[in-house]
Amino acid sequence: MRVMGLDVGSKTVGVAISDALGWTAQGIETIQINEETGDFGIERIKELVTEYAVTEFVVGYPKNMNNTVGPRGEASENYKKMLEDSFHLPVKLWDERLTTMAAERMLIEADVSRKKRKKVIDKMAAVMILQGYLDSKN
């Protein structure tokens, strides 16, 4: 049983995968997307689902601090529906408030340059989303 964690942004989707036992999350890659042209990276996700035998998805759900859902949260809801329609696997939305900020802070503390941080921030956020979900199940 492997779970795929996704941090959906407006330009990229960070991807993380759990180990076979569902205990730990590892960052895999960042997929470039284009909302305007309708390219949401589903083809690449299909390849990863097959490669890693994914059985479930967790999508970051960026709620506002007052618990309301804004435009990015609605985009995550739409992405969830797209995944359900494409893969017919369970898809959970996971509250991801502050995960990107926490990932950025972690990378800054590790003295990662701004240029390198930009390349891995979404993947790191996906790891934090997925790890939070896995921890809640175990």
From TrEMBL:
The protein's enzyme class: hydrolase
| Alphabetic keyword roster | Cytoplasm, Hydrolase, Nuclease, Ribosome biogenesis
Q: Name one Pfam family in it.
A: RuvX
Ranges that cross the membrane: none
Tell me where on the tree of life, at the top rank, the source sits.
Answer: Bacteria
Q: Where in the cell is it found?
A: Cytoplasm
Q: Which PANTHER family does the record cross-reference, listed alphabetically?
A: POLYNUCLEOTIDYL TRANSFERASE, RIBONUCLEASE H-LIKE SUPERFAMILY PROTEIN
Q: Function of this protein?
A: Could be a nuclease involved in processing of the 5'-end of pre-16S rRNA.
The entry assigns this protein to a family as follows: Belongs to the YqgF HJR family.
What's the name of the protein?
Putative pre-16S rRNA nuclease
Provide the species name.
Answer: Ureibacillus galli
